[in-house]
Design a protein that fits this description.
Strand content: 15-25%
Number of helices: 10
Low-confidence stretches: none
Largest sheet: 6 strands, parallel
Strand order of the largest sheet: 2-1-3-6-7-8
Radius of gyration: 17 Å
Number of strands: 8
Order of helices and strands: EHEHEEEHEHEHEHHHHH
Helix content: 40-55%
Distance between the termini: 40 Å
Oligomer: single chain
Shape: globular
Length: 204
């Protein structure tokens, strides 16, 4: 396949890197171009490989993802960086957003959500989770969801694919995908990551 999306990752946990690599290598449109395990090597990896999408851990023994992003974006302002973190800190997210980081996602997301995040960033959208302002907004909206839609949201938040949800509640994949589109429309959400966010905030 021509013009495949080049993806690289920098994270100090090798087993996490191997898991992400395994997930993304199954996508024909993605080309894996490298990995780094320290903040120092993270900058050099970007400079050497120039990935279209750069997955970057927030915490490193020798630095953090914000500082690495700052160095990269100073030299390459169009870099598409997605921070991967366990830090649910709205201040950190805000600073990353102001810096020009394209995404900030929590590490417990599913493989489908990671792929969707990459797709959204490639489309020019920012993807950020969780954030206090967004949490407040999500708490206030209901969208007239049905009992079935709330059930599907809860299953999506557990990382189940449409096929797995269909098997769990004995519906067709086509029906599940229709429900998913309706959920996004009713709640005025853009993607699966925000549905997961909605479920977390509203404890579904």
């Amino acid at each position: 396949m021509l013009n495949r999306t080049k993806v690289a990752i920098a994270d100090d946990h090798k087993i996490f890197v191997e898991g992400i690599q395994s997930v993304l290598k199954d996508q024909e449109w993605i080309k894996w171009v490298g990995e780094a395990f320290t903040a120092k090597d993270a900058f050099q990896l970007y400079e050497d490989r120039r990935p279209d999408i750069y997955l970057l851990d927030y915490h490193f023994p020798d630095g953090n993802g914000y500082e690495v992003s700052k160095r990269i974006l100073h030299k390459y302002p169009n870099a598409a960086i997605i921070i991967l973190s366990m830090e649910n800190d709205s201040d950190i997210m805000h600073q990353c957003s102001l810096l020009g980081v394209k995404g900030y996602i929590i590490k417990n997301l599913s493989s489908d959500e990671l792929i969707e995040t990459i797709e959204q960033v490639l489309l020019g959208n920012k993807v950020y989770m969780w954030g206090e302002k967004i949490e407040s907004k999500l708490t206030d909206q209901d969208g007239g969801l049905s009992k079935r839609e709330k059930e599907i949201i809860a299953l999506i938040s557990k990382g189940l694919t449409s096929q797995e949800i269909a098997n769990t509640i004995n519906l067709s994949v086509l029906t599940i995908n229709t429900h998913r589109r309706n959920i996004l429309r009713k709640l005025n959400l853009k993607n699966t990551a925000m549905v997961v966010q909605y479920a977390k905030v509203n404890r579904l």
